[in-house]
Amino acid sequence: MTITGETSSSESNATESNVTELKSTRARARVKAPEPTPFKPGSILWDTVGLHTSVLAANSAFVLQVMHPSIGTVVDQRSRFRVDPVGRAARSFASVQTWIYGGEEAIAEGLRLREMHKPLSAVDEEGRTHHALSADPWAWVHLTGYYASVTAVRYFAPAPFTPEEEQQLFDEFMHLGRILRVPERMLPKSIPDYWAYFADMVENTLVPHRVAHDVLDMLERVPPGTPTLLRPLAAAAGLTGGRLIRFITVGTLPPAARDKLGLPWTPADDRRLRAVCRTIAITTARLPERLRYMPIAYRAREAARARQRLDRALANRPL
């Protein structure tokens, strides 16, 4: 037999406990996470993101991004990449460099991108609405960058990363995700978690979106808006540089993504890719820093060295 008075007291205590726990959870949710800090000299991203060779690996990341149904649909309908591919690329790489080399401006840039993408949405052919800032596509845009960074090291770095460097690169990329306001729940907790997530996305989420094919095709075309007098020269450059960039882009895609896009790739192609990338890596390593790095990255590195020289002079001044 249940004693009514004891049951009532127990239920009351349980209810009070639940209410207290709920209030505590809400209070913790109201506490803002600390603001992310900008990257500084000495970080791996500081040394790698601004390299011109990083652009070659970044192309495959962009193809992976637009294979996501939401991203592909929004880019298809809201982006100017078809009419202004050069301008769009320049703006994108300037933004990426700002994340790493911009100091406090990097934090502002992360917020600006969020605000810029808030109103961006599109409806696909099946009537589904896609939002640019939904957690899944927003995280995928960022996390493909880690794939691009690992790929750049694999093909263009003078030596492979040590396990410690791999971990540092991963940690820095998760920190970059916080600068870009990627929801914390979307950030993998470890390198194995990342590759499990990446494989699942490629296998079960990505589609052979027409935008991905358009991006690849445009790498070999004369950019829209090219002056008539320059079009023959641009066409000739496209036959060489454009085809080479497309070849590297296709080759640095994961095999499962190439298969989805119906892009042929042979062992001979892979050997050629490695030979081409090795040649590029050796050649660029011999260039002066001013030519190896993109302008924002070079100026930031130059300014950081000047700041260090000033700090040493101040530390050693006569007192």
From TrEMBL:
Full protein name: ER-bound oxygenase mpaB/mpaB'/Rubber oxygenase catalytic domain-containing protein
Coiled-coil residues: none
ER-bound oxygenase mpaB/mpaB'/Rubber oxygenase catalytic domain span: 46-281
Regions of compositional bias (Low complexity) in chain numbering: 1-21
Pfam families assigned to the protein according to its UniProt record, in alphabetical order: MPAB_Lcp_cat
UniProt region (Disordered), positions on chain: 1-34
